[in-house]
Amino acid sequence: MSDLPPNYIAPTDDTRTLWTGRDDGPDAHARRWHQAVQMFDLRNTLEHCFDPTICFIGYASDLGVRMNEGRLGAALGPARLRSRMASLPCVEGITLLDCGDIIAADTVLATQEALANIVERVVRAGALPLILGGGHDSAFGQFLGIARANATPPACVNFDAHLDLRPIPESGPNSGTPFTQVWEWCKAHSAPFRYAALGIQRMGNTDSLFTRAEQAGATLVDADGFALDMIEVVMEAINDAVDEAEICLSVDLDVFASAFAPGVSAPTAMGIAPDAAFRRVLRGMLASGRVRAVEIAELCPPLDQDDRTARLGAAIAFEVASGFAEAAEDEDDEAEDSTDSTEPREGGSDPSAGKGDDA
Ligand SMILES: [Mn+2]
């Protein structure tokens, strides 16, 4: 394993202070994330995590947004997300580690490489990286980290108003090009490019970008796909796109309507709602047990209103933790079933959870 990148910042006292919130006492069933989360400095070796473990990694950079001529502020996203996650109730069986931040390097590519380094470490230790963004250029770093940790490159599933498949300009990659970088990486490594973009806006992308998506073999689900009577069709489309690969999952907060997510560089007037349809698709993917990393991208606190977008990002983090816990439990059950198959397999509390079993 290579050295830690110079733009890795281990958790500081300030990081710890962000995790402050309501305290209902030490009872295990009354605890909140700020009471459970441990600061972990990756200059120490992260030993193998036998319990389901989430490692928060801040991608405290909006360099890619700047290079994309977007509105700045996403570098402050990770700190805001930590504050808003602090009072979430603990999810049983999940260990939470805050591993600190990646800050902008001289270039977007160097920043992405630094993230990849950290993601690879965490994935190799058997934990789930939860990347707190930050410009969406993080997606290539996430992909690269998993691709290096595993034998086969993962599929990318991206909730986003935008395809993020723009040609890479002479100035280098930016927050609108991460999946072009993945595509090019796959070409260079003779690997299939597996990409599903969900919640895509017709008006958020030019015709030529849709043509590129077609050339890339991407699977697109537009915002209208997020209706309860469409879930099965959408899950099937995602399953086909993923094709049994492992998944790196992106939630770009601009996939949501600006009424829900005003605090992003590029708000979306007619974006999707964070409703049951969205949650079922998200849970379906987590239930597959194939999600190897998750990122919540593009939170821009200076543009937010009453922390609405930050709270939404935190709520998604909670969904991820809950879904991850259920998937881990299912895996345990399966392991037990293989030694003692007399017990019927328990379903989750969410009736949709089983639908994504082969996502
Ligand atoms: Mn994006």
Task: Give me the secondary-structure topology.
Layout: E1 8-9, H1 13-18, H2 33-36, E2 38-39, E3 53-60, H3 63-67, H4 77-85, E4 95-103, H5 108-124, E5 128-133, H6 138-149, E6 155-159, H7 178-188, E7 195-200, H8 207-215, E8 219-222, H9 231-242, E9 247-252, H10 276-287, E10 291-297, H11 308-339
Parallel strand pairs: 2-4, 3-4, 3-5, 5-10, 6-7, 6-9, 7-8, 9-10
Antiparallel strand pairs: 1-4
Helix pairs in contact: 4-11, 5-6, 6-7, 10-11
Bound molecules: manganese (II) ion.
Manganese (II) ion (MN) binds next to loops.
What does this structure look like?
The protein has 359 residues and is an alpha/beta fold. It is 36% helix and 15% strand. Strands 1, 2, 3, 4, 5, 6, 7, 8, 9 and 10 form a ten-stranded mixed beta sheet that branches. Helix 5 runs parallel beside helix 6 and helix 10 (276-287) runs parallel beside helix 11. The longest helix has 32 residues, at 308-339. It is globular, with a radius of gyration of 19 Å. The model is unreliable at 344-359 (pLDDT under 50). Manganese (II) ion is lined by residues 136, 160, 162, 164, 252.
